[in-house]
Design goal:
The chain is mainly α. It has one domain: Cytochrome c-like domain (Cytochrome Bc1 Complex, Chain D, domain 2, Orthogonal Bundle), CATH 1.10.760.10. It is 48% helix and 7% strand. It has twelve helices and seven strands. The strands form three sheets. The chain has a three-stranded mixed β-sheet with strand order 6-5-7. The chain has a two-stranded antiparallel ribbon with strand order 1-2. α3 crosses α7 and α11 crosses α12. The chain binds heme C. Heme C binds next to α9, β4, α11 and α12.
């Protein structure tokens, strides 16, 4: 724990530098380019490896495990009876089978929406209460981000294995694919504009080709992740939320059908990839 704390402090300092170097200029020009920045990317990679020994996300994982086991809500029960896809209370491996159709809610759910369902059905929260504060900041840590860090971390080393055979799962996959290629907004971007070809970059940021198996796997299996530039552990819902922003689309609603459909498309395409979360990202 102490080690993680120390890393957190280092991370905060370095994050300021990295943020200054990269984030500020990320969208200063919206053209995509292939050139420059190799040295900086190597430096970031080296920094990431140095941090890899003590990922600050450990703090989120520990807090998430605690929240999972706490008796909470009007019903004063823990989430330990929540079925995340492999049976009531099974956490290990659950992330690898999500999103998935659940008959109790009659819905296809990713991890975050499933947690919302369990908070409502088991603990007695309202949907609004369960969905508030999905993404944390310095003064309001998010319970949701802690829970996803703990639960996804419990699948570390296991292979993605989304079946997607249920008719509704097929529907969500098809919808996710459609959204991925849908162009719009002021730049006429789709997800595929940034993530549909090899070797693209916005300035220094490499844009993974999510249509190629190898990169689709490595992208999906490294979220949730500790985001150095933000000092927060972020969920996959946050990743999508932020890319809607990159795309200059209207704000993506937390646990909306669109977000679950995109997750279904990307998770299933990552099948066979080995989970390595929470990871560390710049
Ligand atoms: C304008 C360009 C742009 C668009 C459009 C865009 N993204 Fe992104 N995406 C990025 C950037 C920049 C990153 C972060 C890369 C980094 O930090 O290394 C990213 C990262 C990601 C990642 C994580 C990859 C990894 O390896 O960590 C996923 C998954 C992703 N985007 C999905 C999407 C989806 C789905 C859409 C469509 C809703 C989308 N993106 C639209 C620019 C874009």
């Amino acid at each position: 724990m102490y080690k993680a704390m120390r890393t957190l402090i280092n991370a905060a300092t370095v994050s300021a530098l990295i943020t200054a170097a990269i984030v500020s200029s990320a969208f200063a020009q919206s053209s995509l380019s292939n050139q420059g920045g190799d040295q900086a990317i190597k430096e970031i990679e080296r920094y990431r490896q140095a941090l890899g020994d003590g990922n600050p996300a450990e703090l989120w994982e520990a807090r998430g495990e605690d929240i999972w086991k706490q008796k909470r809500g009007p019903n004063m029960v823990s989430l330990e009876k929540c079925d995340l896809g492999l049976g009531a209370g099974v956490v290990k491996g659950a992330y690898t089978v999500l999103p998935k159709f659940f008959s109790d809610s009659d819905k296809v759910e990713d991890l975050e929406s499933r947690l919302v369902t369990c908070m409502v059905m088991l603990q007695g929260f309202t949907y609004d209460q369960a969905k508030k504060n999905p993404f944390g900041g310095p003064d309001n840590k998010s319970d949701m981000e802690a829970l996803v860090a703990y639960i996804s971390g419990s699948s570390r080393g296991m292979k993605m294995n989304v079946t997607g055979n249920h008719p509704d799962e097929k529907k969500y996959y098809a919808l996710g694919r459609k959204i991925f290629f849908h162009r719009g907004g002021p730049h006429d971007f789709s997800c595929a504009s940034c993530h549909g070809a090899d070797g693209q970059r916005i300035r220094l940021q490499a844009l993974p080709n999510l249509l190629k198996q190898e990169t689709a796997r490595s992208a999906y299996t490294t979220w949730p992740a500790y985001r150095v530039s933000q000092g927060e552990t972020r969920s996959f819902q946050w990743r999508l939320f932020d890319c809607f922003r990159q795309q200059r689309f209207p704000e993506l609603e937390f646990t909306s059908d669109a977000s679950i459909a995109l997750t279904m498309f990307l998770a299933k395409n990552a099948n066979g990839g080995v989970m390595n979360t929470p990871a560390i990202k710049r």
